[in-house]
Amino acid sequence: MSAQPRDTGLDGAALDAALASVWSARPGLLGWFTTVDHKAIGRRYIATAFLFLALGGVLALLMRWQLAQPEGRLLGPDRFNQIFTMHGATMMFLFAVPVMEAVGVYLVPLMVGTRNIAFPRLNAFSYWVYLFGGALLWIAFLLDMGPDVGWFAYVPLSGPQYAPGKRADIWAQMITFTEIAALAVAVEIVVTVFKQRAPGMSLDRMPLFVWAMLVTSFVVILAMPAVVLASTALILDRLVGTQFFNPAAGGDVLLWQHLFWFFGHPEVYIIFIPAVGMVSTILSTFCRRPIFGYTAMVLALVSIGLLAFGLWVHHMFTTGLPRLGESFFTASSMAIAVPSGLQIFCWLATLWGARPRMAVPMLYVLAFLFTFVLGGMTGVMVASVPLDTQLHDSYFVVAHFHYVLIGGAVFPLLGAIHYWFPKLSGRMMSERLGRWAWGLVFGGFNLVFFPMHILGLWGMPRRVYTYQPELPWAGLNLFSSLSAALLALGFLLFFWNAWRSARKGEMAGPDPWGAPTLEWATASPPPPWNFSRIPVVESVSPLWDAPGELKVATGLRLDRRELVLTSVMAAEPEARDSSPQDSIWPFLAAIVTSVMLIWSIFSPWAVVWGSIPVVAALILWFWPRGTPEDES
Amino acid sequence: MKARIVADLSELPISGPRGSSPTWWGNLAFMLIEGTGFALAVAVYLYLATVVATWPPAPPPELAAGSGVALVLLLSLIPNFLLSRWAKAQDLRRVRLGLLVMIGVNVLPLALRVLEFGAFHVRWDESAYGSIVWVLLGLHTTHLLADLVETMVLAVLMFTRHADNPRRYGDVEDEVAYWYFIVATWMPVYACLYWVPRL
């Protein structure tokens, strides 16, 4: 045992060279397919999610073009159905949830001061499954097989009787792909947060973004099985003739809505909770003070996570459910405004008298506060059953949820990208381009979506592919469509800024913002091993405790990928565990899993025969290789 | 940034107690996912029972096969418990024996399960009742099958050069915990499928 090389006594270049020899990915294409570095996977995940954002955005522009004037002729009804379904499905399943988890994949290990995410091979597998699921949906769309049943795929419209062909199955199986990927990441984040925090980082010293990702991961774990069960039942109804949703054989169509929204409502919080973690992080850094009411913020996050499961029926107020049930869900829908409001007051108290530095990330936080409060207000409005009955399925609802989702999640995300871009790429994003993009996105967004409130109040229903000239909707629709060009220009500028800055941006250095959390204690971008020595934490803002100095631990091995396990509550060191080496098997396992899932759209026997290669791949993935990582 | 060394971790063990291992926690998280799946499937069963006038629309299931599975699973807790003790003691010979026994224990409920599908007198495509019965049985059967493969792979592994390693004994303990989970999930599913129709 004494022959094992340790980091004790080594310093600087010698230490980094030793760490590089065990942690670096193989060079070339093979390295690209085999790496299990959470930063490489996280970057890929983020880039892919933004690609899907752009694709979903193009679909939105096509819809705006079609609706710009009455009796538009750009899209027919069938294509329009596919496009609004693809827009919703892409934005929710391929962009919003994955991008939030992806930011977590990249940042959580860095923020808790460890060297890789827990189960890094599962992490690689998750990315490939997500990519193949997204490709399935989009290739099907390009082949005119895109789902046309809405992102929620209500039965009976999506059932065997009204949706012949394979379009609805493509939707349902895309769900399986993305849920496998999301659940895998949720488990990794929970275990990383529980077991791999830096020594001393007790739960009450955890950064708020890490808290947010922890709560989100639990919401994912408890919510996503509902949609997996629902989509599996739908596929079974369509493929082998089960009768779950057929009222003639004892089934029930509302069962679908219950299962879907038991997942679908928490889904909103799966997107929103990470975003508030980002807001708290950015606000604290740019106000140069710890966030006001840390404990209250944590409790608010946890209670939002819990209340998220008590709201689903408010999507079903017009389905004729019992009055008492509706009243309960009205009350719970209003109750969630309490922890949300609490957070907003904590942010305002943090801002109070702080003279915040108005860089682009901070501008997005302000845009978030303004827009999200508006979206929250209309949320309280539609939580009321009588008003919801009037506004249901109208453009008012379209306006409401875009205010909540874009204001509540995309603005913080764009701020977060600007904020953490140095950590992702080593370079700063251009402040000038960033301000222009911010103005166009924020202004454009409000000009596009605010009129939709009025259109909804004037009776314009959702999901119509066109409308007659006699109706009073043409003016506001044209205004909204023209404004969409501004919004699109803003996003184009953002993408251009990111692309250009990644190549020519100003070099950032480890901590360009003077931020307090651990990810800024290492180089930008961090080396494959994240930290040359594992940090030791004594407060919630470790980098503000003693500027220029980082407390660290020593004594780790250098002949294998090693990290520190700590206790769940107090983060006391428990063991020096290994972290798995790179492997091609996650990639190969994702390929055979994808073959099985796509095949099973066409034949139930795919599950039998297709699972054989999956099992083989998993065995080869887990079979020990006798490396130092396997020692214990 | 200047690093100031404040702790020496070289004396830490290279694998902690079970509760400190990431795989133990990962196992628990996957049980939470699958447990939620089971709970929702039972909820679907109960929901469907409320939307039709007579439940079940077929004769109540015959009790023998399902109760047999419940009995076998309950008895399997004994060898499973012994296996966990042997794994904790890192007794390779007994662990090998225990895994082989557990393979046998695993095959038995699978054999009975074949009879169970017949005991309900309903096909999956006849009614929503048939659909949820087959899905609940199928969900649990998938767990039994997955666990059988896992136990077999572990058993083979314990006869190779990789066997005598605390990490492997940890794997065996995780497998033991997973079997507890499979037994625990069957009890509410069994109660739901066989006894709710008799209420």
From TrEMBL, chain A:
It comes from the Bacteria. Its EC number is 7.1.1.9. Residues 26-538 form the Cytochrome oxidase subunit I profile domain. The chain crosses the membrane at residues 45-67, 87-112, 124-143, 170-194, 206-235, 255-279, 291-313, 328-351, 363-383, 395-421, 433-458, 478-499, 608-624. InterPro entries: Cyt_c_oxase-like_su1_dom, Cyt_c_oxase-like_su1_sf, Cyt_C_Oxase_1, Cyt_c_Oxase_su1_BS, Cyt_c_oxidase_su1_bac. It is found in: Cell membrane. It catalyses: 4 Fe(II)-[cytochrome c] + O2 + 8 H(+)(in) = 4 Fe(III)-[cytochrome c] + 2 H2O + 4 H(+)(out). Belongs to the heme-copper respiratory oxidase family. This is Cytochrome c oxidase subunit 1. It comes from Siccirubricoccus soli. The gene is ctaD.
TrEMBL record, chain B:
It is found in: Cell membrane. Residues 25-198 form the Heme-copper oxidase subunit III family profile domain. It is a multi-pass membrane protein. Keywords: Cell membrane, Membrane, Transmembrane, Transmembrane helix. PROSITE patterns: COX3 (PS50253). The chain crosses the membrane at residues 28-48, 63-83, 95-112, 132-157, 177-196. It holds the Pfam family COX3. Its main location: membrane. Belongs to the cytochrome c oxidase subunit 3 family. This is Cytochrome c oxidase subunit 3.
